[in-house]
Design a protein that fits this description.
By secondary structure, the chain is an alpha/beta fold. The protein contains 13 helices and 13 strands. Helix content is about 45%, strand content about 15%. The structure holds ligand NAX, adenosine-5'-triphosphate and magnesium ion. Its EC number is 4.2.1.93.
């Protein structure tokens, strides 16, 4: 099918597109070429509802195939593989108030196909999270201010970091923030964990209270090419105010997102909303596959777990065994596109089944089936 001035794009395109700002550098053109190549070589599937063309600073780029991205990066279920090879994810979050959020993130990662999913949370939250599921490995090691005496804080925070460090380098991706809360002592420990993960070059998805933390200390992520921020409407607004000192501009959302990412040193940002917009300062991608009209809490938590798994898989895909011409793809963008589309597909199926009663738990139950329809296990 020919779109946008004559590019040939293979089937399977579904409401996902790549945009560009004014940059026309050869690196950028190359990235777009590679995305088209990646998509064109995946299994064709002709669901072309809502083909769109989006303009950003006068240059329009053809749509990419989000399902094609999922098919490419999802590892085959090879019988020779051992436990852990399909991904080890950790969530830093879970406190007295919130136990659902870290659970949704961690269990979604498993349901999509990760082998191991850990949760590092406070002691109060740990027993509750364990009781939701025996599949999760739960570490009750975080502390809030109320449980630590002033004179013990330094020792306790060193102990917490040491405990997390024992595990960190085993993880393919960590998610910081779902249900973390905003206790200052806890947030300081989370900052230490983020710095350490960065030193070890471990990808970090930052969501919810992790975004609150980062918004108040942008240096925690500035220039980290392995960080993904996943703000919802309010979290994005706060980030914009802090970093660009301005309000949301609905007339030029793509360019504003690209600028925000650029100002934070090219950090990948997935802006959630009616349409998900994704940018790493070079490109802007939009995913608008229809999901569900239900806005029950917890869907963002599923998304962060989903992005974590797909980012790990995309990194492996990009780093090993593929033609060198594809190695300049940004795996974090591929992970965001894949995570966003899968959540939307699962949300749609859950809504068709449960209508107004649709809850986040129902959406989770459709993650496997939705992935199976795109990338069958056998
Ligand atoms: N079951 C659970 O344990 C859940 C816990 N959660 C946790 O709750 C904590 C706070 O997260 P919040 O997301 O509430 O963050 P905030 O406390 O920053 O609240 C965001 C606010 O924005 C509002 N809002 C959302 N979308 C909007 C839109 N489109 N237009 C206008 N206003 C909008 C919400 O109603 C909410 O009042 C985090 O730790 C998060 O992970 C949530 O993830 C939801 C599920
Ligand atoms: N108005 C909308 N129409 C369609 N999809 C939406 C809409 N708003 C959000 N979504 C989708 O729902 C998912 C979760 O986004 P949301 O804004 O609810 O995150 P969140 O507030 O962080 O959720 P959580 O309750 O888990 O914290 C995203 O993938 C997004 O695409
Ligand atoms: Mg959220």
């Amino acid at each position: 099918m020919k779109i946008n001035g004559g590019f040939d794009v293979a089937g399977g395109i579904e409401n996902c597109m790549w945009l560009s700002s004014s940059s026309t550098s050869s690196a950028l053109r190359r990235q777009h070429f590679l995305i088209r190549t990646l998509c064109a070589s995946s299994t064709p599937q002709t669901s072309h509802n809502q083909m769109e063309r989006v303009h950003c600073a006068s240059i329009s780029i053809p749509e990419a195939d989000a399902e094609g991205v999922i098919r490419k990066i999802t590892p085959v279920l090879d019988r020779t593989r051992h436990k852990g090879q399909a991904g080890r994810i950790a969530v830093i979050g879970g406190c007295r108030e919130y136990t659902g959020a870290p659970y949704f993130t961690a269990i979604s990662a498993l349901k999509i196909g990760a082998d191991l999913s850990h949760v590092f949370c406070t002691k109060d939250a740990a027993t509750v999270i364990k009781s939701y599921s025996p599949e999760l490995i739960v570490h009750p090691i975080l502390e809030e201010s109320y449980s630590v005496r002033e004179d013990e804080r330094e020792t306790v925070s060193s102990y917490i970091l040491a405990e997390v460090r024992k595990w960190l380098e085993r993880f393919d991706c960590i998610v910081v923030g779902p249900g973390l809360g905003r206790d200052p002592f806890l947030l300081n420990c989370a900052s230490d964990i983020m710095r350490h993960a960065r030193q070890l070059s471990i990808p970090i998805v930052i969501d919810a209270d992790g975004l609150y933390l980062v918004t108040n200390n942008i240096d925690l992520v500035r220039g980290n090419s392995l960080a993904v921020l996943t703000p919802n409407v309010m979290e994005y607004k706060r980030l914009l105010e802090k970093v660009l000192n301005c309000d949301v501009n609905n007339d030029n959302q793509s360019e504003q997102l690209r600028l925000l990412s650029q100002k934070i040193g090219g950090v990948t940002i997935l802006r959630k909303g009616k349409e998900d917009l994704i940018s790493d300062a070079k490109t802007v991608t939009k995913v608008s596959t229809f999901g569900s009209p239900r806005r029950c809490g917890g869907q963002g938590d599923i998304l962060s777990g989903s992005v974590a798994v797909f980012t790990s898989w995309a990194r492996r895909y990009v780093m090993s065994g593929i033609p060198s011409s594809e190695t300049s793809l940004n795996p974090l963008i591929l992970g965001c596109v894949a995570g966003s589309v899968l959540l939307r597909k699962a949300a749609l199926r859950a809504f068709l089944s449960k209508k107004r009663a649709t809850l986040t738990t129902d959406i989770m139950e459709f993650l496997g089936q939705s992935l199976e329809e795109i990338s069958p296990a056998e």
